[in-house]
C-alpha cells in the first residue's frame, strides 16, 4: 500500500515538469538520495539474524525490493518522450523555436549550464544513436523508440564511482 501511495501521490509531485529539466550530476544524486530515503521508510529496517539487531537496507537491497524503474529512469524516459514530440513537430512550431533559438544579450561568466538539448544528445550517444541531428531521428518514430528503450535499459551510474 505504501508503494502505491509513493507511485501515485509523491512521485508525480516530485517529477512535475521533469521532461524540461536539465539535470547536473549533483541534481541526479539528490534525486537518488530522495528516492532511497523514501524507500527506506517504506520498507523499514531488516533484522540481522546473527546479531539480532535492526539494520538499514543498503541501496542494492532497496533496488531489489523496488522492482519498478528508479526515479532517474523515469526522468530520462519523460525527457526522451518530450524530445520525440518536439522533434516530430519540425521547424514551424513555437516549440522548435524555443529549443533552437539563441537568446540575445550578454552571457554570464563561467561554464555554461548543460542544456536540455545536450541531455538528449548525451542519451542518444549513450544508446549508440550516432545521429547528430536528434530532431531528424525523432521524426522516425520506430528508430526513436528502439533507441529510447536501449537507453532505458542501461544501469544508472554509481555516485561513488564518479566522485
Which strand order do you get reading across the main beta sheet?
1-2
Q: What summary fits the major beta sheet?
A: 2 strands, antiparallel
How much strand content do the residues show?
A: under 5%
- Helix and strand element order: HHEEHHHHHHH
| CA-CA gap between termini | 36 Å
What is the number of independent domains?
1
Fraction of residues in H or I helices? 55-70%
Low-confidence stretches: 155-163
Contiguous helical run count: 9
* Mean pLDDT score: 77
Total beta strand runs:
2
Structural class: mainly alpha
Describe this structure in words.
This protein has 163 residues and is an all-alpha fold. The chain has one domain (2-15, 22-99, 112-162). 60% of the residues lie in helices and 2% in strands. The protein contains 9 helices and 2 strands; from the N terminus they run ααββααααααα. It has a two-stranded antiparallel ribbon. A hairpin with a 6-residue loop joins strand 1 and strand 2 (54-55).
Amino acid at each position: 500500500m505504501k508503494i502505491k501511495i509513493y507511485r501515485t501521490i509523491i512521485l508525480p509531485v516530485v517529477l512535475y515538469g521533469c521532461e524540461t529539466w536539465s539535470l547536473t550530476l549533483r541534481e541526479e544524486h539528490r534525486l537518488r538520495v530522495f528516492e532511497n530515503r523514501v524507500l527506506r521508510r517504506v520498507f523499514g529496517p531488516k533484522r540481522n539474524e546473527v546479531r539480532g539487531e535492526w539494520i538499514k537496507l543498503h541501496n542494492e537491497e532497496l533496488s531489489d525490493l523496488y522492482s519498478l524503474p528508479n526515479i532517474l529512469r523515469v526522468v530520462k524516459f519523460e525527457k526522451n518522450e518530450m524530445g520525440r514530440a518536439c522533434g516530430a513537430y519540425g521547424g514551424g512550431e513555437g516549440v522548435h523555436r524555443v529549443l533552437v533559438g539563441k537568446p540575445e544579450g550578454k552571457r554570464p561568466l563561467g561554464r555554461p549550464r548543460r542544456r536540455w538539448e545536450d541531455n538528449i544528445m548525451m542519451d542518444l550517444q549513450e544508446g549508440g544513436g550516432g545521429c547528430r541531428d536528434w530532431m531528424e531521428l525523432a521524426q522516425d518514430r520506430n528508430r526513436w523508440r528502439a533507441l529510447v528503450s536501449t537507453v532505458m535499459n542501461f544501469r544508472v551510474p554509481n555516485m561513488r564511482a564518479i566522485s
